[in-house]
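step 4 of 6: structure.
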Amino acid sequence: MSAVVTPRHRVARLAPGRIAIVAGVAIMAVVIFAAVFAPIIAPHDPYAQSMLARFRPVSAEYWLGTDQFGRDTFSRILYGLQITLWTAFASTALAMVCGTAIGILSGYHGGRVDRWVSAANDLLMSFPQMVAGIIIVALLGPGITNLIIAIAITAFPAFYRMARSAALALRERDYIDACRVLGYSDIRIIVRHLLPETLDDIIIVATLWLATAVRTESSLAFIGLGAPPPAATLGGLVRDGFDNLLDYPGLAIWPSLAILIVMIGLNLVGDGLRDANDPRATA
Amino acid sequence: MLLKVEGLRVSFSVRRGWPFPKTHELKAVDGVSFDVRQGEAFGIVGESGCGKSTVARAILRLVNLKEGRVVFNGIDISRLPVRQLRRLRPKLQMIFQDPAASLSPRMRIGDALAEAVRVHGIASGKAVDRLVRDALNEVGLAPESAERFPHEFSGGQKQRIGIARALVLSPSIIVADEPVSALDVSVQAQILNLMARLKAERNIAFVFISHDLGVVRHFCERTAVMYLGQVIETGQTREIFDAPSHPYTRLLRSVSPVPDPEKPALAEVQEGEPPSPLDPPSGCRFHPRCQFVTDVCRTKTPVLRPFGGGLVACHHAETLPPAEL
Amino acid sequence: MSVLVVDDLRTSLQINGGEYHAVREISFSIEEGETLAVVGESGCGKSMLAMSIMRLLPSVASITAGRILLDSLPIEAVSETGMERVRGAKIGMVFQEPMTALNPVLTVGEQISEPLRDHLGLSRREARKAAIGLMEKVRIPSAASRYSSYPHEFSGGMRQRVVIALAIACHPRLLIADEPTTALDVTVQRQILDLLDVLRTEGKMGMLLITHNLGIVAGHADRVAVMYGGDLVESATVTDLFRNPAHPYSRALLASLPRVDRDLSELASIPGRVPTLVNMPDGCRFMDRCPHAMEKCNSMPPPADVGDANLHMVRCWLYVQGGEHAA
């Protein structure tokens, strides 16, 4: 028998994207660890103000200095990371579930329903992401939940399009016809036979969109549409730091660096997965 | 009668034209009727675009019928609500041309077969496994195959899996759309022999779609020849191929390669290709390519009528010279 | 005179550091005006053989031994650029899928004119005239007006005619047709094969017809070579092969063929399947599926020179003097 590659052994096919993935996963592991265990790691209370400790430079006690209220920047970044990541994961997950479900249903069903849903989706896509985000947050009002919903709506079209085109293509395949001949219900065909085929692509899109969600969150926070104070998010920290940019540039630079690291980590994982899954790369 | 197809019509809309495309009606199947008895193989032959695959898909309601009826065991399944149709599905199964594309790529063979059994409540628990193993055994695959994925099998083995998946549901009829045309000759023989055995032992009827006259002759008792969406001749396979009546059947028969160098090929074949089904010729659809064409052929569409032992749609069936083969 | 002589050809593939013989010790020749059909199932090496002759092998494959003489010219001595000229002018090629052989954005007329100008040095006007002549020769109706049509405006059969016009444009000595009608309907298939026969006779070309269809072989070839697993297992005149097939594989292949002209009770089928290249037996490659397999078949490949290469050659231990069985 020739060497056999089963779907279980897919990891073996990850070779081309492996280095990127390993690096990305390592970065994200550290970042997520830092966010989750922020209460334990953080040397100070991120919300504790101290007039005596304003604008402290980098030191053994305040690793990244303090802000104009004497709050520890490092601790605030850790807590900010927590909210930023939670917002990003929750919104991407929401967009993934809704986008994939509606996309697959729309593509599988076809016809008039598909045309209308696609038209609505195109309308949504025609707004630049930031503009859409701003409008939605403005409509919904401030708050983390609304922020998550707003980002999810901006990410929705990517998943919808992906899932719909996959369903459209797969619907024409013989094995879907075979399922119909075997008397399977549409729900069973979609869940058991269509969805698993699209999952790889969807997860890759999700990793790449996580990075975009982090960026959207930061941008919205930067223009004041993020989580309401005193909650710190990375974008909010950058914005606060901007007030004293010339005198204390560190206050804006440190959280910016944190955003950068998260984005690099997520993009490496996403790109790596995509390359590894590209049949042309493994041919 | 196990399966009765009556006046089947299927149309697709095609948008053609530039810069303002118009919707045209492509009559893929234009009034096809035939019936299939229990345990019998009924062949449908024709060239690409003649609508033979569409007939297969229409029988199984994979495409929508425009007109006509498909009666299975006395039940008109062409108008049956989806839920009731689903309950009947196990009895009407299908085998596809591309065995690789007709299996869910991420499902173990055993799971794929078991799913079909469970969905229809044919068996449960341990009995499912036994049924799956029996079906695999019947098509000549080892029981260990159940643990493996479709891509681990060769083309012929995949086709065996496709047949096993139909078999677990104990169908009374299998629609086979070009089941062996993607296979090598020696493997083709294995699959044909397997299907012939199932026909004989399990009394399963087949609707067998193929472009290969040799394969159809070997497997089917009766055959219909299709041209541009219509049946132009039907009857006993042997009679159709040994003494074809319709000029198109004669043409098909004479150009079908015979593996015998001592049978000289017919001298000359007239040039020409089937016209587009979007714009079929008036009258008899074969008239532009027919060497016996007369005026009546250009204006009047011939209907299928009894001739010899079968049915022929040709105005001149009685007066044509005997076919030279 | 031989248009093509292939002598003891071996083509190997490098897979994961190992070397595997995709074509093993093959010898044959094609005379002027003659059609040699190479038949075999998928994986038998027939396409690899064609690519070896055209020197269009993929990078992992290379000719490791043997000689190929094209019109008495040893092609291994020809440089890479020289080979391009040889392919354009001395070998005409017709493939299974005509669309892949044609450029979709050029008119068919321009495509046929191109080799005429490149290889025969015709002027634009002369080339146009000659191209229309060629299109008439391959019986494309109203050739002059279809000169400026694009490939997608042609049917599959007409496209294959365009490819044939291209192939014969420079009066090649050898025509290689690799499954030329597999993608076509039977009525069109017959027209294309008849056309190829006429052109071959008129142009005194030799033709290498690669096909899996024994019916086509019977009707359109003079001699036939049967391939299995990279070996040429039997070669003979068409009549001889169909009447007295000698190799167990040829016999099984012929017996497994359903026929349109007569009833058969059951088709003979060959058990098992072709081993993959990596798992090919060292000895006779058909051994695992052969009803007559014996000790010797396992240990050594049968000699490639049993019988007269031009009459009836069989590569099987059954036919070697001192073999344990007589056929």
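step 5 of 6: annotate
 - Residues 1-14 of chain A have pLDDT under 50 and may be disordered.
 - The CA atoms of residues 207 and 270 of chain A lie 5 Å apart.
step 6 of 6: archive
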